[in-house]
Amino acid sequence: MAKISSPTETERCIESLTAVFQKHAGRDGNNSKLSKAKFLILMNTELGAFTKNQKDPGVLDHLMKKLDLDSDGQLDFQEFLNLIGGLAIACHDSFIKSTSSQK
Amino acid sequence: MAKISSPTETERCIESLTAVFQKHAGRDGNNSKLSKAKFLILMNTELGAFTKNQKDPGVLDHLMKKLDLDSDGQLDFQEFLNLIGGLAIACHDSFIKSTSSQK
């Protein structure tokens, strides 16, 4: 029987990002999206380091509008991934800056 | 002094995805990209569950071409994130199908 290896850290992260969306979006029939209220809860509970660092109180409203590409007032999984991607790029850019300035 | 809370699972995953790209892309001066060879190593070591499941031996070549939007023969961090996003969407879709079929 083929040996089933345990998931790598990267595979675990992909599953975890899917699960956190599911946890917050919940399921209304076949429709799995984040309402504005659920988005705000997710931002405060799962991404507090980013959220608490924002000086502008309107930043989450602005972010929701920017992410909600089809303007249906909700975020589907692709729109949620764009949020994660944006935060990862910010994290990556600050890593590049910090290692370049050490030279 | 403000209490620094430990990162959440989602924040840790964002850092981890950034770190795995850095680990494999390495740094040639200010340029942090995945060559084809490094992409193949990453796919086999970090995403083995996906890679070992592919019947078509040419799937990684095809995937690299599809991801390499600017056709420079390398993947930058945004192009790498598109890979992660694609795999997350596949994971999400299979989750939705599996929970719908349980009804």
UniProtKB/TrEMBL annotation, chains A, B:
CDD domains reported for this sequence: S-100A11
Pfam family, one: S_100
SMART domains: EFh (SM00054), S_100 (SM01394)
Keywords assigned: Calcium, Disulfide bond, Metal-binding, Repeat
MF (Gene Ontology): calcium ion binding; calcium-dependent protein binding; S100 protein binding
Domain EF-hand: 55-90
Gene Ontology biological-process entries: regulation of cell population proliferation
GO CC annotation terms, alphabetical: cytoplasm; extracellular space
InterPro entries per the UniProt record, alphabetical: EF-hand-dom_pair, EF_Hand_1_Ca_BS, EF_hand_dom, S100/CaBP7/8-like_CS, S100_Ca-bd_sub, S100A11
Stated role: Facilitates the differentiation and the cornification of keratinocytes.
Family, similarity comment: Belongs to the S-100 family.
Protein name: Protein S100
Origin species: Balaenoptera musculus (Blue whale)
